[in-house]
Amino acid sequence: xxxxxxxxxxxxPALIPALRLAPDLHxxxxxxxxxxxxxxxxxxxxxxxxxxxxxxxxxxCYFAPFQKHAINPALDLWPEAYNQCHPLAVRSIAxxxxxxxxxxxxxxEGDYAAFLPLTGNRxxxxxxxxxxxxxxxxxxxxxxxxxxxxxxxxxxxGATPYEACRQVWQSAAAHxxxxxxxxxxxxxxxxxxxxxLGWCSWEECKWDISEKRLLEIIDAIExxxxxxxxxxxxxxxxxxxxxxxxxxxxxxEGEVPVHQSERKLDRLTPRQDKFPRGWSQLLARRAxxxxxxxxxxxxxxxxxxxxxxxxxxxxxxxxxxxxxxGVKVPRPAxxxxxxxxxxxxxxxxxxxxxxxxxxxxxxxxxFYQGRTANAVEATLHNHKxxxxxxxxxxxxxxxxxxxxxxxxFGAGASEVTRCSEDYKKGDLWRAKHHLSNxxxxxxxxxxxxxxxxxxxxxxxxxxxxxMARSKAISAGPVYLSDHPDNFVKDxxxxxxxxxxxxxxxxxxAVPLPxxxxxxxxxxxxxxxxxxxxxxxCAAVAIYNLTDPEQTVRAHLAADDYLHAGAMLQxxxxxxxxxxxxxxxxxxxxxxxxRLEPGKPLELLLPGFGDEFFVLCPVxxxxxxxxxxxxxxxxxxxxxxxxxxxxxxxxxCEAAQILFYCESQTGLRTKNGSVRQxxxxxxxxxxxxDRLSVTSSN
Length: 697
Description:
There is one protein chain. The protein is α+β, with helices and mostly antiparallel strands. The strands form 8 sheets. The protein has an 8-stranded parallel beta sheet. The chain has a 6-stranded antiparallel beta sheet with strand order 1-9-6-5-3-4. Strand 5 and strand 6 form a beta hairpin. The longest helix is centred in the middle third of the chain and has 18 residues, at 334-351.
């Protein structure tokens, strides 16, 4: 127990035994909390600290903000974290230096163990490494004594890393204080608009948005023939009151410029100088067959610096608390949070928006820290206020800058959370970070949320091709930020159908087991990720993210297919290699080959880039691959049925479909044309949406 812990003078009888009986983390799994716990917080609001006895392990992956390879590792903004949660592969706890949220071990017994510090409705817990040891701490960052049940830790062991990660969240969700906060992703409905291609103003425009400029961009989108179906109007519209002006360039990643932190919300309506008619002219441009949905960016705290004390929020002001000179936030009470967010969100709903992107959730606790009785409780009131209001107004939410436990546990029924730091056009180092963190974070974030891999420029000369393919397997929203005049159609069209509907995997892509415990930058090893596709297929992407760049040897094996269902939450997680085996289709070269068990395909990646394959099951000597012009070819087929040697496919739209056929006589069809492309690769094209093929034997 930490020396900083100060039990109350009359602790409940259960206090001392509970602290002495640390959980058996060597067991198969469990949930640990302290009933009737009482303690005085230290000056940081910490009420409990305990050394953990971890099972022996050979490798570990530790998730914490601003770790070794962060864009700006000098930052250590705890408990804020922004969207800066990074995986770090280590062999020893002595290699850790930052407070963290999640730990995954490969034990010396050969299985995997996951550890998740718990956030309840009044407290949060976290890991603290110190001098080669790992502590679990818990607190509320407030000023008042803690009295009550204290949820602390969930842990689970599994035969695969994915099983351990899933079970640790399921165990956490069983705690009575946590079950109202957490919903597993499999119980959530992916928002309808994010099934389609989108566009966001931020990376292209930054704060320079206005009615005039956005209308011009909408005109350009509609003239581009790129099927963008939703737009997101990002930062740059918040009304700060007198003296408002556009910001200069942003600071380093994870660091809001100082002048930004001084910006505060004054009114709920957009700036009059930029949007003289409000949002009406922009929202009037929605059309069922064009841009059908529009969303707007909000700052969780009102704006980066909170809410002005001399604001124009009317009756809402009585629900606000002044916490510093010129700064207000919602009072630390559920009814105050409800009043503020219902007005804030309700204004966007009244304007007519279809969804929200909400930013800077992670920073909310800093407004209450050391200023209120329980800063965690106050922050979670705000999370509940936001998400309840979004639910009442039927506005889906993309959570952004939400990478601390309060943002993760407080996301409630919302469906989408950013899983990495910001994308930046033309920045190869950031692109590598973005790819590594986006995929790795889904191991723990992806249990409850779909991951948002952020916007991207199709015209990015540094990473445009790789980034486009990575978005395809994210299973999250896919949205551009180029000016429409610069759209690169060859990179965009493979993502979607002609109407803009995305070709999405069944679950988010995550690293394969041999890529979870590596340093993708320092080690000459590939990052290999996998995602499940329809019709028993799977996508495998293989990246060289080394920096400085090194040649990387990689492989693709039939056994990789066993992990395709890793992130499915519908009971179909355990995949088996089909009896007749698999075909590996190279999406980049459009070549197909047999992937024999025990004979992996050897690959060489000389520098930054990817290899991208789809694994397709062989049945009766034929594998259905799908559309060669798409990143995820099988997703372009709605249904596949087999009967007496005939394969019947219903297509999402008329197209060319590829088949792998072992028969030397090939395939034939009665309702289309057939062409042999290679010894075992055949192309069938139809004008309609139905195709039937049979072997020519």
